[in-house]
Amino acid sequence: MPIHPSAIIDRRAEIDPTADIGAYVIVEGVVRIGAGTRVYPHAYLTGWTEIGPNCEIHPNAVIGHAPQDRAYGGEETYCRIGEGTIVREGASIHRGTAPGSATVVGDRCFLMANSHVGHNCQVGDDVKMANGALLAGHVHVGDGAFLSGNTAIHQFCRVGDLVMVRGGIAVSMDVPPYFTVGLSGLCAGINIVGLRRAGFAPEQRREVQQAFRTLYRSGMTFRKALDELAQTVKTDAGRKIVEFLRSPSKRGIVGCIHNRRGRATAAETEE
Question: What integer pLDDT is reported at residue 1 of this predicted model?
Fold first, then answer.
């Protein structure tokens, strides 16, 4: 596939012969572009950036630019994009800020228009960020998570695997795997649809449901509830939740929405 004659390509760049580089694209710096990747007109790729094979970089996307961090002094830092990832119009992904550090986006991710991945974020595989979703610096997002439109995730937060966040919500604390986030940035239940689509067995889904109830509906302190949960989990899904909650956290664990009667919400149940 061709490199358009109007594209500006740095001599240090390494572009696979099968990549397609559109009109007015700027590739500046030590950028590597994998096989079969298409870069649409007016995209800007810079820094020490590596883009995997079969990606799509749409118009006005900015990848690998300097982080929005006053402490950054131009040191060599990295941006890595996995295979099959789509970056839509106006989306931006910044490289790391500390020398030698990296921002990483996994395979098959879908970053929709005007979404943003800040410096030093670690984004897993199959993550979807809808239009305007924003990750501040040092955010970790697990595999298969879905961040709805205009979601904002505070720096240093962790978002677990298959978490779904409601649109227009600011998340300021860690969200355990498989849960959903609703009003006021609090947990609203479990991501049953996501679990089914990901092929989780019924016993795994039931254990995730029970984990939610133990943590948020049992009336125990969170620490005591976690200890009880750790003693009862039997599936990989349950163990994943316990492992997440016992890992170091800089932001703490998100609380839960309670209805007027203090009962479980409909989002918790499979029926």
Answer: 60
